[in-house]
Design goal:
The strands form two sheets. This protein has a four-stranded mixed β-sheet with strand order 1-4-3-2, with no helix packed on it. Strands 5-8-7-6 form a four-stranded mixed β-sheet, covered by helices on one side. It has a single domain, classed as 2,3-Dihydroxybiphenyl 1,2-Dioxygenase, domain 1. It is built from two helices and eight strands. It is an alpha/beta fold. The two termini are 27 Å apart. This is VOC family protein. Pfam families: Glyoxalase. InterPro entries: Anthracycline_SecMetBiosynth, Glyas_Bleomycin-R_OHBP_Dase, Glyas_Fos-R_dOase_dom, VOC_core. It comes from Haloferula chungangensis.
Length: 123
């Protein structure tokens, strides 16, 4: 087996309408795929070369302790201010490391979403 790239990252959600208000309204993402199926609903957001998905399906349960995805932003301070203004729950941060600035927030189902900005000179 040869793995070439990450196809997508997905977060399970309970209420698709509520989740889309967060991902599209608060984070400003645009849905690139919206597919309803028997027993489920899947929405994708293409971001750069990757895809972030949210889904409702049997056996998929949101978890505050599950995996996280970090979204690279152009203006870290502005992103943090917008999240604070939207009363989004911060899990931790904002903080600075030698290579970046980051903060992790919670979506309406408690999933952890990172907001990230690399410092100049770091890929």
């Amino acid at each position: 087996m040869i793995i070439r790239e990450i196809a997508f990252s997905v977060y399970p959600v309970k209420d698709m309408s509520r989740a889309r208000k967060f991902y599209e309204g608060v984070l400003g993402l645009s849905a690139t795929m919206d597919h309803e199926m028997e027993g489920g609903h899947w929405v994708e957001y293409d971001i750069g070369a990757g895809t972030l998905a949210i889904g409702v399906a049997p056996g998929m349960e949101p978890s505050r302790d599950g995996c996280s995805v970090a979204l690279e932003v152009d203006d870290f301070e502005k992103a943090v201010a917008e999240l604070e203004a939207a009363n989004v729950e911060f899990n931790f941060g904002p903080l600075e490391t030698p290579v970046c600035h980051m903060a992790f927030v919670r979506d309406p189902d408690g999933n952890s979403i990172g907001i990230h900005k690399r410092k100049d000179g770091h890929a």
